[in-house]
Amino acid sequence: MNWQVVEWLEYAPTFLSGSEFEVACSFIDGYLTSRTFLVGHGLTIADIAVWSNLAGIGQRWESVRKSKKYQNLVRWFNSIDAGYKETLNDAVVAHVGKRGIGKSPAPNLKEKVNDSKDPSAPEVDLPGAKFGEVAVRFAPEPSGYLHIGHAKAALLNKYFAERYQGRLIVRFDDTNPSKESNEFVENVLKDIETMGIKYDFVTYTSDYFPKLMEMAESLIKQGKAYVDDTPKEQMRSERMDGVESKCRNNTVGENLSLWKEMINGSERGMQCCVRGKLDMQDPNKSLRDPVYYRCNTDPHHRIGSKYKIYPTYDFACPFVDALEGVTHALRSSEYHDRNAQYYRILQDMGMRRVEIYEFSRLNMVYTLLSKRKLLWFVQNKKVEDWTDPRFPTVQGIVRRGLKVEALIQFILQQGASKNLNLMEWDKLWTINKKIIDPVCARHTAVLKDQRVIFTLTNGPEKSFVRILPRHKKFEGAGKKATTFTNRIWLDYADASAISNGEEVTLMDWGNAIIKEIKMESGIITELIGELHLEGSVKTTKLKITWLPDIDELVPLSLVEFDYLISKKKLEEDDDFLDNLNPCTRKETPAIGDSNMRNLKRGEIIQLERKGYFRCDAPFVRSSKPVVLFAIPDGRQQVSLN
């Protein structure tokens, strides 16, 4: 373990000493003046130890937080609290009893933090970055919901802004009214909040439309841009072949006249676009006179039909980056060939240089990240909407049961690496399991259409109830009421694995011995046996979940999902429509213990011996099942059979 971490672990309990509290606060406040974390550039067990000791103090610490006396310490505390809240809840339980009395650190905290860090993930620096002066931006197009690829970009921008105590701008690149809507804006902001990203302000490229038009006109007057009416396909062909447009040498007057036609949205103007006059012979085709402006008469979601012309991303992005004071533009390496274009356009505009920092695009197996292709699934009713659990959108994977903490850890493990990798979903779900397993409640279910009654001849004549923990190792999960009866339900798969005369363990009860197996046409219809509670659970081979035969059992619908496409990686010439997975959703009716009528939407549980599930639709009435979405555990598909 890092020696600095060891020192902090030894120092952390100082907060619990009343006489040393103020001294400790003052010391750490000064120490954090130029730091985001206590050790290195990421969360370590040192942060968790100090944070949990502070949180365990209670009212005295809350008074300090409100007084703003130690601003660096409070800033650090709030940042850790916002970014790692679920993980830290476990830490607080370990440190603080019901009366707020300090306890020794939980033994699994070190393991939890170490598991969240990938030793192969390098700590990277932004070129030329100055502490306190860095400004980065996350610039999504409001043409869809954020997906896991966007999440990487957003979280990396957050990371660098916090690391250098700089600014983070959220800017909507709203330059294509045909694809954009307020729905997407609202949900992007929702996703940003879900990921715990704190930004300085929100802007829109459309805020700068007047200035962008002025710049385009200025470049036309300087001879650095021209208006072209070449048909689209011909223009594409000429760019590929390095052939100059017939309009390239138009006079400034001719260009300005056509520019006015474009602004007015006239029939003549609609035939034109503005192109930068760069270099048609450059081997880098992005420099072959890219389009700066094009016409579009569709109303804009923010400003209606005020404009008939809109800037392209290539033109607007460098301009607004420079204008807003962005120091470092994080872009995925798929844009590498366009970096030269970005710098050339800035140069022609006479604006200051913005450093580009590249990171690898996040690619996941069996996954489409193209918003155009995802939109096809929505429009063709192949999924419910953009929040469908089969979608790689932030809302989709969270709805399936992913904790945001797992997503953050997964992204930061990769860092800002430029290596192109096809990532497995299993790695993400493995991280998720480590977060949910220590705290999620345990419940029991059997499959409705595949169950067998087990009659216990010496079972209780009158049913009785015991109050048991919902999680044997996490008191915070609460309690549940378990009913014990002389007739209980077993899954058919368990019943078929039992031999006559065998002793088995009924979980949370004790042992039982099978005396008779009744069958009809080769199908088991009933088991008869007797309790043997004095038997040792260590000697039995089968440990079986069960439910009492009572009216209060809860109807369930257990839902499994599969990938939308059947090919691990689509090549450029692959049509995704030829690789659709024919079956991507499977619903299995089941019955659950009576406590499950209290589940809340979004609550994550474990159905013992079946897997982890997220409650998507809670109990309303007995005729309507509780809907539970199966959560992958990183090792294998959840089995409901």
UniProtKB/TrEMBL annotation:
Catalytic activity: tRNA(Glu) + L-glutamate + ATP = L-glutamyl-tRNA(Glu) + AMP + diphosphate
EC code(s) of this entry: 6.1.1.17
Cross-referenced InterPro entries: aa-tRNA-synth_I_CS, Gln/Glu-tRNA_Ligase, Glu-tRNA-synth_arc/euk, Glu/Gln-tRNA-synth_Ib_cat-dom, Glu/Gln-tRNA-synth_Ib_codon-bd, GST_C, tRNA-synt_1c_C2
Keyword Ligase: yes
Glutathione S-transferase C-terminal domain segment(s): 25-80
Keyword match Cell inner membrane: no
Glutamyl/glutaminyl-tRNA synthetase class Ib catalytic domain ranges (all copies): 133-437
Similarity comment: Belongs to the class-I aminoacyl-tRNA synthetase family. Glutamate--tRNA ligase type 2 subfamily.
Matches recorded under Pfam families: GST_C (PF00043), tRNA-synt_1c (PF00749), tRNA-synt_1c_C (PF03950), tRNA-synt_1c_C2 (PF20974)
Lineage start: Eukaryota, Viridiplantae, Streptophyta, Embryophyta, Tracheophyta
Glutamyl/glutaminyl-tRNA synthetase class Ib anti-codon binding domain span: 441-530
Region Disordered: start-end pairs: 103-122
Gene Ontology molecular functions: ATP binding; glutamate-tRNA ligase activity
Cited PANTHER family: GLUTAMATE--TRNA LIGASE (PTHR43097:SF5), GLUTAMINE-TRNA LIGASE (PTHR43097)
Enzyme kind, highest EC tier: ligase
Biased composition (Basic and acidic residues): 109-120
Name this protein carries in UniProt: glutamate--tRNA ligase
Taxonomy, superkingdom: Eukaryota
Annotated ranges, domain tRNA synthetases class I (E and Q) anti-codon binding: 543-616
